[in-house]
Write a structure and sequence with these properties.
Blueprint lengths: L10 H14 L1 E5 L14 H13 L3 E6 L2 E6 L1 H10 L45 H5 L34
Antiparallel strand pairs: 1-3, 2-3
Length: about 170
């Protein structure tokens, strides 16, 4: 290994982190250098962060940082390096590269695929489908039939509530 190591990490811990990273394909860590251990791996959090910094500099992982958490994603060169380091066969791949087995119950719903809703727009007249019926319901601007309060509605204003009430009232 021609890369300088600033932090001495026991090989047992290094192998644990590498195994986890290869199995999952992704790794996260809270930016807490004093945490006694990583939540997923029995290794101090600082060692996980430092190992991933090293991987990032060698472009074995890509890094995202959000809400005081680091997120690392294994790259193809990182997969090759870990496969060689851990002496793994080519058939074993990280979880991120495995094909997901979707449940067979419902067919996937695509843009033109089956679904419960009719397609938008379709053969309905006017832009926006049935919005015109909603908007042109005879209320509001430009309408001669003004909608107002129902017959018999008589609000009472008793005064004295809210601001402006005098002290002597």
């Amino acid at each position: 290994n021609s890369y300088p190591t600033n932090m001495l990490i026991p090989k047992k811990n290094r192998v644990e982190v590498y195994k986890y990273l290869f199995r999952e394909g992704v790794l996260y860590a809270k930016k807490d250098y004093n945490a006694p251990k990583h939540p997923e791996i029995e290794v101090p959090n600082l060692q996980v962060i430092k190992l991933m910094q090293s991987f990032k500099s060698r472009e074995y992982v890509t890094e995202q940082y959000a809400w005081s958490h680091y997120y690392w994603f294994l790259t193809n060169s990182g997969i090759e390096y870990l496969r060689e380091y851990l002496s793994l066969p080519a058939e074993i791949v990280p979880a991120t590269l495995k094909k997901s087995t979707r449940p067979v119950g419902r067919p996937p719903v695509g843009r033109d695929g089956p679904g419960d809703r009719p397609p938008r727009g379709g053969d309905r007249p006017g832009f926006g489908g049935d919005r015109q019926n909603y908007r042109g319901g005879g209320f509001g601007r430009g309408s001669s039939d003004k909608a107002g309060a129902p017959d018999g509605y008589n609000p009472e204003f008793r005064g004295g509530l809210g601001r402006g009430r005098g002290e002597g009232n």
